[in-house]
Amino acid sequence: MSFSAVIFDFFGTLTPSVPTDVWDEHAARSAAPLGIPMRQWRQALDESFADRAVGALGDLTETIRALARSCGVDPDDETLAAAVAARRASQRELFVFREDAVDTLERLRGDGLRIGVLSDCTVELAEAWPSLAIAPLVDAVVLSCREGRRKPDPELFRQVAAQLGTPTGECLYVGDGGGSELSGASAQGMTAVMLRADDWAVNDAHAREDDWPGPFVSTLSEVVSAVRDPSLITR
């Protein structure tokens, strides 16, 4: 077994896991300008994730307006702008990487591997991507909100491999298991490895494959060793 590329999930993989109380606190910030109770706003965000993750509600301003109206509020421009700013700021706090993320990507690139990112995400990540520390280290990024489809849609896995110029059978896929991504990657011929980091259990993720029976690593740094010697991957 040999690999030409490594593809990473974003949230909970390259970034730390996000527990429920953090999502609640962030929801409260964007709910406040709108005058919407946090729980009602959090429910609106959760229930709209499937649409937001495929870009169906438009840009961030259009998204917040649509969700506010679903909660019975029709915000004026000033109120809407304040809610959008709060949402954008809180989301960008989540774009902080694990301590070994940048080093792992640099080491993989140094070994000659190509790097991809495949994420189920909303428009906030697409907006921020060019400014992120890992962006120059990534050869191909496929974001669900741009593509209009979510994991485990086979086309997403084929697309990121094609952008990397690598057959799917030569790709190692690393993720925390959200969105049925590991079985989705495996179905396209990739070798899928779960990242079960110390904070894995507290992650508030969508449709996570908690019962993943395949290989796993405990840190991103272990991915480098796994690529160099696949027999080191723990089952």
TrEMBL record:
The keyword Hydrolase appears for this protein: yes
GO molecular function, one term: hydrolase activity
Keyword annotations: Hydrolase
Domain of life: Bacteria
InterPro entries listed in its UniProt record: HAD-like_sf, HAD-SF_hydro_IA, HAD_sf, S-2-haloacid_dehalogenase
Matches recorded under Pfam families: Hydrolase
TM ranges: none
Protein name as catalogued: HAD family hydrolase
